[in-house]
Description:
By secondary structure, this protein is an alpha+beta fold. It has a domain of 264 residues. It is built from ten helices and 17 strands. α1 runs parallel beside α2 and α3 crosses α4.
Amino acid sequence: MTPDYQLKIGTARIDITPDYPIRLSGYGARKEETSEVIQPIWAKCLTISHQDPIPFVLVCVDNCGVPEHVTETVAKRLRTKAGIPREQFVLSVTHTHSAPFLSGALETLFGQPIPGDHQTRINYYTRELTDKLEQVAISAISHSESGTLSWCCGSIDFAGNRRTEGGPVDHDLPVLLAHHLNGELMAIWCSYACHTTTLSFNTINGDWAGYAMEKLEETYPTAVAMVSLGCAADANPYPRGEYAHAQQHGEVLADEVSRLILADPRPIHLDSQNEKGLVGQIKWIQLPFDTHPTRTEWEERLEKGGAIAYHARVQLDRLNRRQALQTTLSYAVQTWQFGSNLSVVFLAGEVVVDFALRLKRELNMDKNCRLWINAYCNDLPCYIPSVRILNEGGYEGKDAMIYFNRPTHFKPEIEELVIEAVHDLLP
């Protein structure tokens, strides 16, 4: 039997705030660079190993969305330098819309070409961020020590369905805690399914997630606090629009985490002969796009102006170069299992709430939050809508695809493909 104290846990953080002007991501209307920093932004890392000395590595980043090429670059470096298998590395983002734009993400967000000097700084920051993500992971791996894990789940309610008043929302707040052997907190990792869009100013900050982490680290100065997002594609924070609102939401989350810490979290036991220990898996599936518009239809969209016309121009330019438009999207589904205690799912992109609610129901884990579902992980390819959302249409179902440089919306079968992949990984 392997006692709990033989868990090895590492943490690290690194400041990723640019010290030069740069465009921010998330809102296409903001086309000017900014140097105004309201709150520093961070990349933070938690590593966990049990029996096998090669750790599981989670990096959480204050950004709207890190593209796959950055994730895979960091993953390859970690494999080379630390032997980390791909299935044991996850990159998660807070989805704050108040952080720098990255090369390869939301490629047609602004509805017009990006000026060359702006793009130069975007490219520089993307390379700089890639290096820092590697650095923070290596630092956490290098400074691991014996510790324990526990988990708990609460609930907060500042998220609301942004498509339908009173529509479905996932209010669960799962929390993973890492402690030193002396009882002091090492790490707090939590997740909530709500867009990080309280703010839309052209200033750098972490939005409600940044304020939540800031308060948690003030309350627990020995801990690194990390926030991920659940299936938040159709959920917004309310109220919104002011810095005070973002701070308010962050405090609500931090206060609930503090309550849970005092309420006897459940230990994660990985020492039983009946346990599988810590298991990581990843699977790439192909999500099919619907029928592409015809050339005539693309040309008609040129007359609409704005972002629609720019997106059409990009697709026509591709066709004129005799390049094929995408017919499928390569999509990562990843899971970590902490024995029979807890199963964590990591999904790429902006996933609507229907996926989380369905998976919890189907896997019989809707009680006690034993199934923890994160979105916005490893890549930000586009919105991932359910059949219901596709049938309803609107922004999350179809319209948003123009900002992600996708040729059209998905076919309805993508819901079953994603659900089946999770079932395959969590039998």
